[in-house]
Amino acid sequence: MFAAVDLGSNSFRLHVGHPAGNQMRIVRTARDPLRLAAGLDMNGNLTEEAMDNALRCLRSFAEILGQYQLDGVRVVATNTLRVARNASAFLPRAEAAIGYPIEIISGEEEGRLIYMGVSHVLADPHERRLVVDIGGGSTEVILGQGHDIEAVESFGIGTQPQAAAFFADGALTPEAFEAAIMSARARFEDAPALFPPGGWSAVYGSSGTIRAMAEVVSSNRIGDGTLSLASLEALQARLINAGRVEHFGLPGIKPERVIVMVGGLTILIGVMRELGIERLIAVDAGLRLGALCDLDMRAHRRDRRDEAIVACMQRFGVDPARADRTATIAARLYGRLKPDSDRYVRHLAWSCLLHEAGQVISHTGAHKHAAYIIENADLPGFTTGEQRIMATLVLGQKGNLRKVREALADPDLAKAQLALRLAAMLMHARLDDEVDGLRVRMKTRIEIEVGRDWKKRHPTAMVWLEKEQGSWEEIAIPLSISTT
Q: What region holds the Ppx/GppA phosphatase C-terminal domain (predicted)?
């Protein structure tokens, strides 16, 4: 059984589900319409009130999660926590409240998870489809066929800032709608190059805002009763006729959700006009279901992150044989260093596979180029935090350690760094079969032991080990080398 928590800009939502054949059966849901994006002040910081409300919700979610025996939990945060200037200060409090790590995912990763959720509930595995998701702080557009994603883009436009910019006073005028729609179209004017009109057989809308529009249009027989462009323009006319947000009272939407729908409507009309979309279908699936499916895939060793690493290796011309050799050596050394947990085992392996990615740019400072690539590349399945960990390890693979000193305060990460540095050295010296001749321990100091025969056979390796001694001692971690 798995759980997915979506810390969205409009609402915090939770799904608990368990796999049943090829389906994910949802057994519990929860939602709190916090409108976190509205809690950003003029400086881009979350207010104390917004953070307190979020923490209250997370504590209630923690109580729900505690009622189930879960095999995996994924808590993801989207646009508002991506852009909030004080997110790093808020995050530890939020993680303590819910009891699980929180991943602030990129817009592209958000789009991929949305598509995974949508494709999971659609029957046709060959259908070429476009998915549009309008959130509180961003809008994701994804093109794919069946379960395969071909293009994904996150646009920095969402219901909250759109509503605040054009309908802050609650007035629903033709001029406000026209300005809001034109502003939305400007955001999507490059979209046709990424998603050529007509390149799909169906279009789906996955967000709660789009589902709310579908409910209002259907319940009140607006236009043709479907989410056609004509029906949405008819809904716009109904809103204008109401005159003000608080005067719109049609069945299908709660009064407090009207302003969210208004912002979303202008975005949806804008993207439909720019991409030539005449009609879309609202579907009750998206980010949370995608996160549940991703957890299920990981449990069955079908991790999208492994595929992303292989694709990145190919993109930057990494020699797979050298990368695999480094990863194998590092894994053996890391095991001998006896980390307190397995938290960094996979990060170390992935870092080894990409540690030479920077050589495609320049051999001089290749480790710096590789670190930049890893931290900034679009790697499906990875969070920004995971990429930052790998970038740190790769940056510290050689040379001075001052540049990664702060990160090495984590003992297990420091052991992973040592394992990568020694593995890279041994791989370059082609000493794959000689790893057993090197013993290493690390607590408050590093102790390396080599046999006398090993030392005689590999005198140049000893030169590198002595240089390594200076690098660690420079950051106040003593390293001793002894011969047995």
A: 305-469
